[in-house]
Write a structure and sequence with these properties.
The chain is of the alpha+beta class. Helices cover 23% and strands 44% of the residues. The chain contains three helices and five strands, in the order βαααββββ.
């Protein structure tokens, strides 16, 4: 199941979005400031993505591999996150560090909306990179 989020932008945020690594990281950090409504939406989407492995709680997330094409308004990034999995029946908590999730985004300059989409392949996750 692919997750998506839509966030309304203001003109100032759109003006700050440039195809430079520092600008892109700043843009995402402002969009998903910890404890904000947007952050909680993203955290919830990530927890749904990682749910097949248990009852997840995202404890940390960072953005990297950020790309953006100003001409098309399309971009992508990777989220590196730490997850605690709780297994209620066994009263066990497992901690997994540096898990990853791939996302794309599309900026609508006319409507001032940015749409974020998780990878369409999340249901076919591979454990190949975990070993």
């Amino acid at each position: 199941m692919m997750n998506s989020l839509q966030i309304k932008l203001n003109k100032g945020q759109l003006d700050e979005l440039k195809n430079e690594p520092a600008s892109l990281l700043s843009f995402l950090n402002v969009m998903f400031e910890p404890l904000s409504a947007n952050y909680e939406q993203l955290k919830h989407a990530l927890e749904r993505e990682f749910r097949p492995e248990g009852s997840p709680e995202v404890t940390r997330l960072n953005f990297d591999r950020i790309k953006f094409d100003q001409n098309t308004g399309q971009g992508s990034f990777r989220i590196v996150l730490d997850v605690n999995y709780s297994f209620g029946c066994e009263d066990v908590v497992t901690y997994k560090k540096d898990q990853t999730s791939e996302w794309t985004f599309l900026v609508d300059h006319t409507l001032l909306i940015v749409s974020f989409y998780s990878s369409p392949f999340i249901d076919s996750r591979s454990t190949t990179d975990e070993f």
